[in-house]
Amino acid sequence: MKSIIYITFILSIVTANITITHPNKNSIWVIGAQETVKWELENNFTDLGEVDVLLATDDPRSEGITLALGVPLIAKETTIKVPNFMPSGSGYVLKLVDREEKPWPSENFSLSTTKAVEADSVSIDIEESTNKNAKSNSTQSDNIIPSNDEILNGDYDGRSIENDKQEKSNLNNRDAKNSSSALPKMNRIINSKQAFLIISTVVFICSTF
């Protein structure tokens, strides 16, 4: 009995506890792409043997698909390819199986046909796009030439059609007033010329006698 307890104690010391850090619950792997598996070791040994890398579902009956064989534990990471035939979805688990055939599972993660985009990147892109559009709209508004439809709708230069009509009427009245005030002056000029001609004629007649 003591021998069994001693052997179990020795095995627990030699065997390292493995914690898979990637993939994790936030990971979305792309089907058919190269992905990196990373893990941490609780016990610091120089020779921890090798592990096999399996991809399975969170179903306890799922044996999984082997992605890599004989990966040194001391490496703490390896690159694998996600099989093209895997369906997209959530509830996938990566397993590292040690030399004693003990599986060390990861957190549940997802598979997708497209690469996931970080939320921060999306917000930055949206903000930059919004700023560019606002700047573009501002530049365009400065260079707008009103169309006939805008003029007819009363949107030209922020004035209504009624205001335009009133201004036009005022302009016509001003022109008419200027024209009427010029008539007496023209009449005076014409009368002066007529008087001059009459006087010149009289002088000419008198000079002939």
From TrEMBL:
Residues 131-146, 169-180 have a biased composition (Polar residues). Residues 128-180 are annotated as: Disordered. The keyword Isomerase does not apply. The keyword Acetylation does not apply. Coiled coil: none annotated. Residues 156-168 have a biased composition (Basic and acidic residues). This is Protein PBN1. The lineage of its organism: Eukaryota, Fungi, Fungi incertae sedis, Zoopagomycota, Kickxellomycotina.
